[in-house]
Amino acid sequence: MNEFSLENARSVALYCRVSTDEQAREGVSLDEQQDRLKAYCRAMGWDEIPLLFIDDGYSAKNLDRPQLNKLLKEVDKGTISRILVTKLDRLSRRLLDLLKLIDTFQDHKVSFISISESFDTNTPSGRLTLQVLGAVAEFERERIRERVFDNMLHAANQGKWLTQSPYGYDLINKELVINDTESKVVKRVFDLYLQKGFGYYSIAKQLNEEGIPSKQKKEWSIRSIKLMLTNPVYKGTLVWNRIDRSNQKQVEKDDEEWVVVEHALPLIIDEHTWEAVQKKIPGKKIHPRSKTSPHLLGGLLKCGRCCAAMSISWMGPKTKRRRVYRCSANKNKGTCTSKWYNASDVESWFKRGLQQLSKSINQSYVIMIASQVKEEEKREIQQQIHSAKNRYKRKVEAYTAGLIELKDLQAEKDRMERLVEEAKNRESTTSVNTSELEDKVNKKIATVIDAIDNLPVVEAKSLVQTLVEKVVLYEEKNIEIVLLNPS
Predict the structure, then answer these.
(1) Domain ranges of the chain
(2) What share of the chain is helix, strand, coil (3-state, %, to 5)?
(3) d(CA 148, CA 54)
(4) Pseudo-torsion of CA 154, 158, 159, 161, nearest 10°?
(5) String of b and e for 255-272 (b: at least 16 CB within 10 Å)?
């Protein structure tokens, strides 16, 4: 690009642009654009050397382009008299953006010339032509966008993968194929979260320490682990059209606009495990620091007097400091009269409480848990019925728009009716084996007790959090242990 100094005379500016998908297209190369614009200047008798502003590899969908921004700064300084482009769409494909730019040019007495369309915005006829051409260009772009969307919608309904392959898969001929090495990591992440009680941070840290890279060969983060655990692709479900990316800020669309195709992809995680993880994700809120603190009951222990959280404090001189659990309302506000308790004693009472609990799981407790399991099963069934009906509704809309055949619509109707019938049958026959449930609870308690005795505190604590919802401390040796639903 030519370097220039800003002298007294106003200059002619030549603006050229190509986007990456236009590089090989005949007639729009940067060299050809420059040659045509310079020839036009010679034909008009403009002898001064024009200034070049070239955006190589930038789309016309928005105005955030380096050389266009530089050109606008020069316009604002008053150094430009005319701006030339080979075609209207070199500057912008959106009518509103074009009009905004031209208003700016007019304010600074700069004419805008498109040599292919043969008009100059200094004339009324040129401005009228510009608006008509801009409207036609925008209309055509919208038509292209609609055709692309319709084609992608059809491909998604056929189970074709339309974007970059997620971790655990390779993309071959627009179809996902399981990557054996990565899929083992996916299974491990789900196991660490569901069975070992690790949080997003702890999982990311462990994978990074072991040198396991992400799909983009970067380190794992809290966000990437959460996205993996919530991605339905791993249970074989294709979801498309979930995010609106038409603006700079991405927004999640209403779920009725999503394209959801069940059992369309090779699964890595069975549906039961995936659903169990989803139930756990929005569960009890534990502060991130509490999850990884080296204190067994951090984030779980509550005051029996005021129900506030009890956190670790340190008592005594520096040479003989000892850990204590102290009511946060007492410590921070003075509104609770609860005393502090030696942390090792509290953790010992908790362990003994678990041991006693494993010997005294009574029938009424198991029946209560069984009732909760049945309610969750019922909610899950109702959700499946709702999803089946929504899928059919989207198929009706696709048929109305001419995107699918009548036979495809009928097949979806039959599928919906079958799924609804199966779900209703499950709802009427759902039962819980209380003996099996009692055995499951006892085994989980035994595993946690063993972890407390043999594992580092942070790892033992992760397992405790898969079993215990909260621990309430009333007074010395008087604690209540509230278990999570074991389903």
Answers:
(1) 11-144, 158-280, 288-362+437-483
(2) 50, 15, 35
(3) 29
(4) -40
(5) eeebbbbbebbebbbeee
pLDDT, one tens digit per residue, over 40-90 is 998 888 888 899 999 988 887 788 899 999 999 999 999 999 999 988 888
Pairing of strands 341-342, 51-56: unpaired
> What pLDDT sits at residue 8?
45
Q: Comparing C-alpha atoms, which of 320, 175, 149 is closest to residue 236? A: 175
Pairing state between β 301-303 and 468-475? parallel
The whole-number pLDDT of residue 429 equals 57
> What residues contact 263, with CB distance under 8 A and at least 6 apart?
236, 237
Distance CA 111, CA 104 (A): 10
Task: Tell me which residues are annotated as active site.
Answer: 19
DSSP secondary structure letter of residue 320: G
Cα–Cα distance list, 98 to 56, 112, 119, 147 (Å): 19, 11, 14, 24
Instruction: For the sheet with 322-327, list strands across it.
Output: 310-315, 322-327, 341-342
Instruction: Give the model's pLDDT for residue 47.
Output: 83
Topology of domain 158-280, CATH: Hect, E3 ligase catalytic domain fold (3.90.1750)
Torsion angle, alpha carbons of 165, 166, 170, 175, to 10: -50
What is the residue type of 399?
A: Y
Q: In whole angstroms, what is the distance from residue 294 CA to residue 312 CA?
A: 10
pLDDT digits (tens, 9 = 90+) for 55-66: 988 887 788 899
Tell me, yes or no, if the pTM score tops 0.70: no
CATH 1.20.1090.10 fits 11-144, yes or no: no
In the numeric block, which tokens belong to residue 188?
Answer: 């491990």
How far is Cα of residue 90 from the mean position of the Cα atoms in its chain? Answer: 34
Decide: 126 and 205 in contact? Cβ < 8 Å. no
Among residues 177, 184, 171, 235, which one has the least CA distance to residue 210? 184
Which residue in 208, 198, 211, 200 sits closest to 458, CA to CA?
198
Residue with tokens 């430009």: 80
